[in-house]
């Protein structure tokens, strides 16, 4: 299910990463603007290689009821270029919840592509992986990401608060959630 997924949308192909994507992915995750609101700093090539290798290794270990982290490549259909990633994985501060995440190279922002990828992966999560609920968290300042969550139908639930000290970095995030019934509506 995870290793051979292939999704086509109007403008995109979404598929598992391979090590051949290394340099294209590095060009994206080394951009300061892309990493601004993400937990990691802009990555070196060696860090990207380690991360990509871990992502690919985890394809075999993910199970529908136990997703470790499932990150896949977002490709522009027209040109075949790798333009970003999207994924599903346990929420760091509450691993019982599966979080939807995404990122695109800066040149591809603003055309609705992130929304197209996020919606397609959420549908995959509900219809193929049979998840009941997907959540999204975003710092209030990341307005574009917040809009993506809203545009795919996610519902704002709360501002994250009251976490233990080891998760204090997540305090204040906006927390959204979506169920299969809501996305199909
Ligand atoms: C978040 C991200 C994927 C959004 O990509 P995108 O291509 O701009 O997304 P879309 O075009 O699908 O939608 C963005 C929406 O935000 C809106 N938006 C973007 N910047 C905005 C701003 N500063 N103020 C108000 N609205 C803004 C856009 O107008 C659009 O909404 P609309 O369709 O209603 O007009 C992209 O900014 C990114 O890769 N950021 C770095 C990684 C990241 O932060 N990921 C999210 C982790 S929480």
Automatic annotation (TrEMBL):
UniProt-listed InterPro entries = Acyl_CoA_acyltransferase, GNAT_dom, N-acetyltransferase
| Any Pfam family | Acetyltransf_3
What PROSITE patterns does the record tag this protein with?
GNAT
Identification of the protein by name: N-acetyltransferase domain-containing protein
Q: Name one GO molecular function term.
A: acyltransferase activity, transferring groups other than amino-acyl groups
Q: Which organism is it from?
A: candidate division TA06 bacterium DG_24
Q: Which Gene3D superfamilies does its entry note?
A: 3.40.630.30
Q: Where in this chain does the record put each N-acetyltransferase domain?
A: 12-181
């Amino acid at each position: 299910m995870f290793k051979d997924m292939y999704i086509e949308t109007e403008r995109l192909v979404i598929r598992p990463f391979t090590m051949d994507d290394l340099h294209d992915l590095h060009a994206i995750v080394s951009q300061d603007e892309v990493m601004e609101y993400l937990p990691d700093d802009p990555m070196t090539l060696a860090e990207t290689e380690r991360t990509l290798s871990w992502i690919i290794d985890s394809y075999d270990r993910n199970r529908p009821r136990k997703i470790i982290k499932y990150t896949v490549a977002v490709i522009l259909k027209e040109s075949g270029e790798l333009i970003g990633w999207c994924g599903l994985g346990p929420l760091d501060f509450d691993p019982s919840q599966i979080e939807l995440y995404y990122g695109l190279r800066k040149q591809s922002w603003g055309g609705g592509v992130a929304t197209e990828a996020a919606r397609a992966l959420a549908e995959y999560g509900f219809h193929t992986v049979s998840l009941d609920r997907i959540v999204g968290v975003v710092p209030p300042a990341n307005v574009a990401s917040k809009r993506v969550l809203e545009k795919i139908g996610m519902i704002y639930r709360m501002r994250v608060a009251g976490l233990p000290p080891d998760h204090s970095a997540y305090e204040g995030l906006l927390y959204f959630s979506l169920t299969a019934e809501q996305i199909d509506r």
